[in-house]
Amino acid sequence: MPTTPITHDPEAAPVAPKRAKDVSVHGERRIDDYFWLRERDDPRVRKHLLAENAHTAAWFMPHAALRKQLYEEMLARIQQDDEDVPCRDGRWWYSSRTLAGRQYPVEIRRAAAGKERHFDANAPDEVLLDLNEMAEGKPYLELGSFDVSPDGRWLAFSLDETGGLDYTLHVKELASGAVLPLAIERTEGAVWGNDNRTLYYLTVDEARRAHRLWRHLVGSGRPDRLLFEEPDEAFSLGLGKTRDHRYVVLQIDSADTSEVRVLDADRALARPRVVLPRRSGIEYSIDHREGLFYLLVNDTGRNNRLASIDARRPDLSRATELIAHRGDVMLEEADVFARHLVVTERIAGSLQLRVRDLASGEEHRVAFDEPVYSASGFDNAEFDTVQFRFEYTSLVTPATVYDYDLTIRERVLRKREPVLGGFDASIYASERVDATAPDGTKVPISLVYRRDLRANAGANTKADEHTLEQTNEARPQPLLLYGYGSYGIPSEPEFSSARLSLLDRGVVFAIAHVRGGGDLGRTWHDAGKMAEKHRSFSDFIACAEALIEQGWTEPSRLIIKGGSAGGLLVAAAVNQRPELFKAMVAEVPFVDVINTMLDESLPLTVGEFLEWGNPKFAEQYAWLRAWSPYDNLRRAAYPAMLLETGFNDSQVQYWEPVKYAARLRTLKTDDNPVLLQINLDAGHGGASGRFDALWELSLSFTFMLDQWGLAR
Fold it and tell me: What integer pLDDT is reported at residue 514 of this predicted model?
C-alpha cells in the first residue's frame, strides 16, 4: 500500500471525514458516516491511520522517559537466557530456549538416555527451529503447528508472517536440516500418522474457518487427498491425536454442538469415521485407551460428565458413566493415561485436579493452598507413565511447573518462572471478594496488591520509600479492573511480572469474573450470552461499584481494561456509566458489533451467531442494538481512552476501534484524550517478538499511570 504524506497536525486529534452510508435494518434508519474506513486499500484510509498514530505519538512524547523506564523495569525482571522444562515424547526430550537479546525462542531437543529414557542435561542439543533466524527481515513471525513424526525424522511446522492467522505449512527433515519444497498456504493444524510419512492437515476458507481435512504422503509425489469438508459455516475443524497414538482425531465444533471423527493412525489410507453423530446442543470430546473412547459430554447436564464407550461400536446409550454431571462442578478436561485418569474440575471458580487409579478405582485430589490460583496439566505427551505435569500460578505466585507422581502422590518442583530484581512474593497479597449484580447474583472479583501500600494508600504510593505514615484504615487506591466475559472462557488469576510495575506504584489489580465467561462453569457462560448478554455489562458495573463501596478505589482512580470481547465489555460499560470510570484501555476491541455480525464474509461472524445473536432476525437485532458500543455512543462526557489494534487482525478488524474513535470524538463533551494506536505489522495478538510485546505494554502502562497522576 502506498504511503500518503501526513498533512494533519499531530497535536490535534485526527478528524475522519464523514461519508454517509445507509446501513438501516429492520426499519430502523442507521447512517454510518465512517463505514468507508474499512477500505484497507484506500490511500485515504492509510493516511488517516498514520495520522492517528502520529497523534498518539505526540501525546506520549512528554512521557517518553516514563515509558522507557517502565520498559526497562519489565525487561529487567525477565531472565533472558532461559529454557522451558524439557518434556519427553518418545525417544526425545523437547524444550524451548530463549537467548539474551533475541526476540524469539529456539526449539530444541535432546536424545533420551537409557532404557528408562531419562533426561540427560549433558546430551547435545539439536536445534529444530531457530525462530530468530527465520524472523530476520520480517516485522512479524508466529509459530503455529509444531509436530514431529513418531520416528523423530520429520517436523511439520507452520508460520504466520502477517499476524492475520495466515499460516503456511512446511516439512523439515531433521537429520539433514533440509526443508522440503512444500509450502501449503492457509493451513491450521497438522498431525502425523504412525507410518511417519502420512501427514494430515487442515485448510481454511476465505473467512479463515478451518473446513477441510487433507492427507499428504511425504515424498510420494501424489496430489494431496481431500478427506473431509465441513459445509456448515457454523462449524469449524480441529485436529489432534489420542495420547496412545491409536487415532487421529478430527474435532468438529460449532458454538454449542460437536461431532468427532477418527482415523486409524496405523492405516495410511484410513478414512474418517463418526464417533457420535452431531445432535444440536450436545458437545463432546474424546480420548482413547484399551478399546474404549473416554468422553467428556454434556448430554445429561451443561457442566459435562465423563463416560466411556466401545471404540469399535460407539453407542452413548450403552456408556459406562465414570463421573456424573454435577450442577456446581464443571468438568473441564480429562487426561487419559495407561493406568490413571486426571480430571480437571472447576469448583467455585477454582481449578482442582482429581486423580483416579483405573485398576482400583481409588481417587484423590491434588491440594492447593492459596485462595486464588490456577492449575492445569500441560506437556503430558507420554501415555504409559505415572508422571503428570501441571503448571500452578496465582496473582502472587509466578508460573510454577511440577511433576506429580500419580502413584505415590508426591510432586517435584521442576521450575518456577524466574523474576529478577529481588522479587519477594510475601509483600504482595491476593484475595477474592464478591459484588452483587442487579438480579442478586454474586459475582467474584480477584484482587492483588502490595500489602504495605494497601495499608498506607492515603499517605504515599511510591514503593521505594519506607517512611510511610501508618494508618489503621486502608484508603481508596488507583485500581485497574480487568474483564473478559465471553465464549465461556474463564479469566484465570495468573501471575504477571510486568504487572509489578503497577503494583509497586500502589495500584490494585482486579479481575471481574462476569457472566459470559466460564469462571463458574458452563451455566455461567449461558447466563451471559445471546439474549442475556446484557448481564456481562451489568455484572462488570456491579463489580466496579462494589470495589468503590468496599473502599478499594473511587471513580477518579478507577481504570478499566479489556481486550477483544473484553474490549466490548468495557466499552459497553462505559456507554452505560461513563461517570464511573477515570479511563479505559481497550485492546483490539470488538465494538462495531451490528455491522460486523451483518457481514458473513468476515471471519468468525457465522460461528458467533450463537454467542451474540444474528441481527438479521429482528428479535436478536434488538438484543445487539441495546448494547453495541459503536451504535450506543451518545452526547456525554466520557473517560479518557486508549484503543489499540492491529492492521492485520483477522478476528477483530482494525476498522472497529478506528470507527469508534472517529464517531466518539464528534459526540463527547469533555476534553479527555481518545488515543488510537495501530500496529501496522501485526494482528490480534499484537507484536510477536517478546521485547516488542513489552514495548507495546509499556504504552498502556504509561497511559494509565498518567491518568492516575503517577506519571513521575
Answer: 98
Question: 361 exposed, middle or buried (CB, 10 Å; 0-12, 13-18, 19+)?
Answer: exposed
Which residues are the active-site residues?
A: 564, 649, 684
pLDDT lower than 70: segments of the chain: 1-9, 455-473
The helix or strand, by DSSP H or E, that contains position 570, with its residue range, turns out to be: helix 565-576
List, in sequence order, every beta strand (DSSP E) within 290-441: 292-297, 305-310, 320-323, 329-336, 340-347, 350-357, 363-366, 374-377, 387-393, 400-405, 410-416, 428-436
Encoded amino acid at 25, one letter:
V
Q: What CA–CA distances, in Å, run from 292 to 287, 314, 331, 606, 669? A: 8, 9, 19, 34, 65
Q: Give Cα 180 distance to the centre of its chain.
A: 32
**Rounded Cα–Cα distance for residues 698 and 712 (Å):** 14
Task: Compute the CA torsion angle 599, 600, 605, 608 (nearest 10 deg).
Answer: 120
pLDDT, residue 472, reads 41
Residue 131 has phi, psi (to 5 degrees) of -70, -20
pLDDT at residue 409, as a whole number: 96
Count CB neighbours of 218 within 10 A. 18
Strand partners, 347: 329, 350
C-beta neighbour count of 637 within 10 angstroms: 11
3-state secondary structure labels for all residues of 550-569: CCCCCHHHEEEEEECHHHHH
- Here the cell at position 492 is 484465570
Backbone CA torsion sign across 251, 252, 253, 256: negative
The residue type found at 199 is: L
Rounded to whole angstroms, the Cα distance separating 496 from 501 reads 10
Cell, residue 638 = 466520557
Tell me if 479 sits within 8 A of 508, measured CB to CB.
Answer: yes
In terms of pTM, does the model score above 0.90?
yes
Q: d(Cα 456, Cα 506) in Å, to the nearest integer?
A: 9
Cα distance between residue 354 and residue 181, in whole Å: 46
d(CA 584, CA 600) in angstroms, rounded, equals 30
Cell readout for 428 is: 504482595
Q: Name the CA dihedral angle for 251, 252, 255, 257, rounded to a multiple of 10 degrees.
A: -100
What is the C-alpha separation between 664 and 592, in angstroms, rounded?
Answer: 12
Kindly report, residue by residue over 447-481, the tens digit of the pLDDT. 999 999 986 644 444 444 333 333 346 789 999 99
Q: CB within 8 A of 699, min separation 6: which ones?
A: 60, 67, 642, 644, 677
| CA separation for the pair 449, 430 (Å, rounded) | 7
- Burial annotation 565-590 (CB, 10 A radius, 16+ → b, else e): bbbbbbbbbbbebbebbbbbbbbbbb
Report the C-alpha gap between 494 and 393 in whole angstroms: 6
At 307 the three-state DSSP class reads: strand
Phi, psi of 18 (to 5 degrees): -90, 130
Cell of 310: 466401545
Q: What is the pLDDT of residue 461?
A: 40
Under 8 Å between Cβ of 207 and 602: yes
Q: What is the DSSP letter of 152?
A: S
Residue 564 makes CB contacts below 8 A (sequence gap 6+) with 484, 587, 588, 589, 590, 651, 652, 684
For strands 583-587 and 558-563, give the pairing.
parallel
